Amino acid sequence: MTARNSERFLVAFNRIEKALEKITGTGSYVSFFKLIDFAKKKNAIVRRFEDDLREYGDLRNAIVHHRTAVEYAIAEPHDEVVEKIERIDRTLTEPPVAGDQFRRRVHIFSPGDSFAEALRMAGKKKDFQIPVYDRGEFRGLISPSGLMEYLADTISEDVISGEITTLSDILRHIHTSRSYEFIPAGLSIYAAEEMFSEAVVKGRRLDALLITENGRDDEKLLGIITPWDLVKIE
């Protein structure tokens, strides 16, 4: 027998409530809405879906508190509502993390590599974030904004030779605060998304997040996230 939407909704709701209790470490009874208040301070997923969760709290009360019998619910949620709350349940239970969603082979450049060769490689891969390492030691990231800063800084020169100019030369001309952060592979993609939005609020340009196992710059680079990569996150 196919479960009714109200039954599916309540199963997912109860699982979410348990997840919020785990996030907050709540030992005694706390209302669902208070759980949201506490959990959103600790969890980016809760912050992302806060409005939905509050609506679901009201709907849950309508279903449970106005039942005339165990088998009868006064409201049957729409399919879209049930599918959304089940998706939030799955997201809280098994959060999508940066290391899984954005892990890929990243081409590493050396300080002595030519500007022209780096551009050719970036164009071929359609990836214009250029990580520079010197014998395994991270030296910097050249992003499109960094390239523009370099060009603006050297525009007075008669000739800018892409073949002669090295990535080390470009790094020396990038003077603004760094436009990247290292993040651990286990960071949720929602927390990663917030890092970009928080940077904007603070008036800082953040071009990329560099993924390593534990978020240290002396570890192997596992992937790169740009703001464009996160556009399709629901």
From TrEMBL:
SUPFAM superfamilies: CBS-domain pair (SSF54631). InterPro entries: CBS_dom, CBS_dom_sf. It comes from the Bacteria. Residues 176-234 form the CBS domain. Keywords: CBS domain. This is CBS domain-containing protein.
